[in-house]
Amino acid sequence: MRLPNWRRTSPATSPGEHTGFDMKRLSNGNLAAVTAGVATPGYDRNTLKPGILHLGLGAFHRAHQAVYTDTAIARSGGDWGIIGVSMRSDRVTQQLAPQDGLYSVLSENQNLRELRVIGCLQRVLAAPRSPAAVTGLLADPAIRVVTLTVTEKGYCLGEDGWTLARALPSVKQDLADPQLATTAIGVLARGLAQRYHSGGAPINVISCDNLGENSARLRAVLLQYMASAFAEAVDWVENEVAFPCSMVDRIVPATTEAGLQRQAALIGLQDAGAVATEPFCQWIIEDKLATDVPDWAAAGAQFVNDIRPYEEIKLRLLNASHSSIALAGLLAGKETVADVMADPTMAGEITELMSRELLPALTAPEGFDLFTYRDQLLERFSNPCLQHRCAQIATDSTEKIRQRWLGTLMAQAGDTLLLRSLARWCFWVLETDLPIDDPRAETLLALRAKPSPDSERLAAALACVGITPRQNGLDEHRLQCLREHIAGLQRAGHS
Ligand code: CS2
């Protein structure tokens, strides 16, 4: 099999692949026309009924939870249709509605290539356009599972990570008129309140975002929000709604135009909802469910009593090094994670960071080998088939650093490679003119422009990632090391 060349503008082809743009579009009617060898749903789509509502219908959900559900139905039966809700634009609706919810997933590395069409996404809605429909579905007893991928900032968490950020304009606005709420928290609260009023059928709410104790945090902020907006339903949510935490893992870069063209060539049909990912896939779910769920275990998901060690390993090893790679790459002008890993010096630093700092700070659950996991990660990061842009991972860094680095950073003393990563973040936001895509961008850009003394700017930037002298400040020696790293970057002429 030829390796893809992603820099082409026309689709890369290999023998048997289609080319050209006169191709039909993927849909129920055209499903039979997919290229031979592309797997199609192993069940009758017509028998599916809506059972899962997903909030945040991005590429990650399509390449992860939907794939597990699709496999579960094919292997164990069940009629679990997914209704996908995009929280902001209706771009995804435009991509998927004309395709009857069908889309293809390409999973690929140097040795493997698998293509399949996923069939369990039944319907797609855009929350801003169809608020009543979303509320109605959340209240519908047939919906027994709500999953969420709304990114870290979607949880509207305050500085302590467990309290509703009431000062956020979006939260203020939602609380002022909960019937018009648009945040994931507000939309979920409104739907659950209606469910309570319609008889309170049991339901599971499962966060699939990269946050430690993700669904427990969600439960905490949701209850605080509901105490202000729908107080009558608080007891019911507290006692009857299940919030199993979950650890999700699969690298799913944002789809590019070139990726879409290439995937169309591979499946023989245009597919505006196509996603490309890696073969690796993992889902660990806390075993505390309120209802039946798809047989995700048959698709490889694991149910455990204590999920915290798994979350911690994933966040503090995979995601922590991912953020370090992204920031180093961003400053070095590398486009993707694989580009960073192809640079021996940079890959060496990442390997050392993982081996000497991140890994020793973790406790593995029984039977889990951290060294094997590290080696797998190094291989996954080096996958040249994934166009995972450093800039994509660097997005929302102020939210990510809290989850990924702080635990390890605060357990360290003296100068470390993780401190050097932190210096790269500080340097990027304060000293360069590279764009910042972050919920705290306004504060950071103001700091960047401010002619205030360096130590004050640095302290204010550190506060944005949750490092404050009062809570968990760096001691004077470490601050000095941080400043020296930043000065080193300045001398090296990154800007
Ligand atoms: C990445 C994650 O974008 C990011 O911040 O670190 O999306 C990462 O690819 C996934 O968590 C892998 O499971």
Model description:
The structure is a single chain. This protein is an alpha/beta fold and 495 residues long. It folds into two domains: 28-305, NAD(P)-binding Rossmann-like Domain (Rossmann fold); 309-494, N-(1-d-carboxylethyl)-l-norvaline Dehydrogenase, domain 2, CATH 1.10.1040.10. It is 44% helix and 11% strand. The protein contains 21 helices and eleven strands. A five-stranded parallel sheet has the order 5-2-1-6-7, sandwiched between helices. Strands 4-3-9 form a three-stranded mixed sheet, sandwiched between helices. Strand 3 and strand 4 (113-118) form a beta hairpin. The protein is globular, with a radius of gyration of 23 Å. The model is unreliable at 1-19 (pLDDT under 50). Bound molecules: D-mannonic acid. Residues 210, 249-251, 319, 322, 392-393, 400 line the site of D-mannonic acid (CS2). One of its GO terms (molecular function) is oxidoreductase activity, acting on the CH-OH group of donors, NAD or NADP as acceptor.
